[in-house]
């Protein structure tokens, strides 16, 4: 029988702060949050996982409607035992008050009749905006970006990662490209991406999940 305990990850260094039949959540010393949610209903994903453009549009619009922004949306597979398990990987950002960003990474494992979602949440604390400022200065100093004197903004700094015509309330900026993570190892976005890799590396699923009917046409 499926349950929240049918999925397990390495939580060494994390303290369990919440547990129910559908959810578990942990917190660490850096006030980062890790969670697993079990949804015992068919996933409300309105397209096939193979239709990546439609999937990205779903997340893009959903995030914009709540004042958040999309950093990335990808579909991939991870090997658990002898099976290749598909998942949706999404990284997002949400403005905090009075300043700073909270970054969230989520891995959704959809099946025909249920799904599991694993999330890691890291927020900017203390000095904020350093990564943005350093990378922006690099682009301006090399004339890769320029200021629009009429609009007063920097052309191309903020842009949806997949649709340059999309104009949502919160957009990814160039400093949030994964290539810059190595220069800012303590930045919350870097930690979210590292956390996702750790989750995938240590993920275990019971056979009851792995043998279940797949999501979409594959099912």
Low-confidence stretches: none
In total, the number of domains comes to 1
Compute the separation of the termini in Å.
Answer: 19 Å
Global mean pLDDT? 94
Largest sheet descriptor: 7 strands, antiparallel
**CATH level 3 topology:** Protein Transport Mog1p, Chain A
Strand order of the largest sheet: 2-3-4-8-7-6-5
Give the name of the CATH architecture: 3-Layer(aba) Sandwich
Number of helices: 4
Can you give a write-up of this model?
With 219 residues, this protein is of the alpha+beta class. It has one domain (4-127, 181-218): Protein Transport Mog1p, Chain A, CATH 3.40.1000.10. Helix content is 21%, strand content 30%. The strands form two sheets. A seven-stranded antiparallel β-sheet has the order 2-3-4-8-7-6-5, with helices on both faces. It has a two-stranded antiparallel sheet with strand order 1-9. It is globular, with a radius of gyration of 19 Å. The two termini are 19 Å apart. The model has no long low-confidence stretch (mean pLDDT 94).
